[in-house]
């Protein structure tokens, strides 16, 4: 665990947007750093049915001791437990019901505790951040359909995390897109689809951003948390000069997956008409300042949560953001172009 002094230093470094010259902004918030280092809770058991180690891939024989994580159900040799991929993302209670070929919603795959982001999204995005930010045309080069389906099924088995380090990075990217496309309802829910479309098409920038913030705040928590996690990642991709994937290109790739259509039984002709709106909405989402999305992974006593903010933490928020119930809703007075998003942090806040 981090001590208070270390935590303060890390906060000061990570909660300051980097001066990259981009309109999107890029930084890695402490909340995501803690999320990505969430530890496994291992317990030792005797093998009854043959299992494979999630780290080395070798078979664990009958009668031998195996380390099992209570939350994500990862299995490994006792000597391999320190190498099992982090973070530990608890298995959803409903994920097993989705293994029978039924299409689930994002809440069916997300853990019941905040942040509600499915394990597949967390681990695949982390792998792309690690190895894919210097790949030209990332997310545009397709992977093997068969391999993508197999990798998705391994995640949905709810038995730990497949070893992604040796897989082709385009296969990992394809799995993210395939998982989002296979959801019964996109991250932007059908009931809020028109709200997002109206917000994106509003000609007044301030009104457009206000309506977009309001629509985001009304999303179910699993949809909102996953959207925030994914958008922060897409912003990092857009700012990588090696990828050559600006916001417009990413919006074309992810628009149909993130925004989707206005209804589940949408006709083909109507879907074609909605493509432009999907791209416009996705561009607007990616262009929202990264510190707004980072607020959904705020730090409260060293833990990641979506509970209401304390008075001390409120002073760290952008002027345009306020708390309403358990969501972040911007005030009507919006940030100007030159206004600072975060005040300087001091140890008095902790």
TrEMBL record:
Taxonomy, superkingdom: Eukaryota
Domain Phorbol-ester/DAG-type, chain residue ranges per copy: 39-88
SUPFAM superfamilies: Cysteine-rich domain (SSF57889), GTPase activation domain, GAP (SSF48350)
SMART domains: C1 (SM00109), RhoGAP (SM00324)
Key words, A-Z: Developmental protein, Differentiation, GTPase activation, Metal-binding, Spermatogenesis, Zinc, Zinc-finger
Rho-GAP domain mapped to chain residues: 104-293
Pfam families hit by this protein: C1_1, RhoGAP
Gene3D superfamilies noted in UniProt: 3.30.60.20, Rho GTPase activation protein
Protein's GO biological process: cell differentiation; mitotic cytokinesis; mitotic spindle midzone assembly; Rho protein signal transduction; spermatogenesis
One GO CC annotation: midbody
InterPro entries associated with the record: C1-like_sf, PKC_DAG/PE, Rho_GTPase_activation_prot, RhoGAP_dom
Any one GO MF annotation of this record: zinc ion binding
Protein name in the entry: Rac GTPase-activating protein 1
Native source species: Cryptotermes secundus
Lineage of the species this protein comes from: Eukaryota, Metazoa, Ecdysozoa, Arthropoda, Hexapoda
């Amino acid at each position: 665990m981090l001590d208070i002094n270390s935590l303060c230093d890390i906060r000061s470094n990570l909660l300051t947007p980097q001066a990259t010259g981009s309109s999107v902004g890029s930084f890695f918030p402490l909340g995501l750093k803690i999320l990505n280092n969430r530890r496994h809770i291992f317990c030792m058991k005797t093998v009854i049915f043959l299992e494979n180690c999630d780290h080395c891939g070798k078979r664990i024989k009958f009668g031998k001791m195996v380390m099992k994580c209570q939350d994500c159900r990862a299995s490994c040799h006792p000597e391999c437990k320190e190498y099992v991929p982090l973070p530990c993302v608890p298995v959803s209670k409903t994920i097993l019901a989705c293994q029978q070929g039924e299409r689930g919603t994002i809440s069916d795959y997300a853990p019941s505790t905040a942040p509600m982001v499915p394990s597949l999204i967390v681990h695949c995005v982390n792998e792309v951040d690690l190895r894919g930010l210097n790949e030209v045309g990332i997310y545009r080069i397709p992977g093997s359909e068969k391999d993508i389906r197999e990798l998705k099924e391994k995640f949905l088995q709810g038995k730990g995390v497949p070893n992604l380090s040796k897989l082709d990075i385009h296969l990992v990217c394809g799995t993210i897109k395939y998982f989002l496309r296979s959801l019964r309802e996109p991250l932007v829910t059908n009931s809020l689809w028109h709200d997002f479309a109206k917000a994106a098409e509003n000609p007044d920038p301030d009104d457009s951003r206000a309506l977009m913030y309001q629509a985001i705040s009304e999303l179910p928590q699993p949809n909102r948390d996953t959207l925030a996690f994914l958008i922060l990642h897409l912003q990092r991709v857009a700012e990588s000069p090696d990828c050559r994937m600006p916001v417009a290109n990413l919006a074309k790739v992810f628009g149909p997956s993130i925004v989707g259509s206005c209804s589940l039984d949408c006709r083909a002709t109507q879907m074609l008409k909605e493509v432009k709106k999907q791209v416009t909405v996705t561009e607007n989402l990616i262009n929202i300042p990264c510190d707004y999305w980072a607020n959904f992974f705020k730090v409260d006593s060293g833990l990641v949560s979506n509970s209401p903010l304390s008075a001390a933490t409120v002073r760290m928020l952008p002027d345009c953001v306020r708390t309403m119930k358990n969501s972040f809703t911007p005030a009507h007075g919006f940030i100007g172009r030159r206004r600072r998003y975060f005040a300087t942090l001091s140890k008095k806040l902790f």
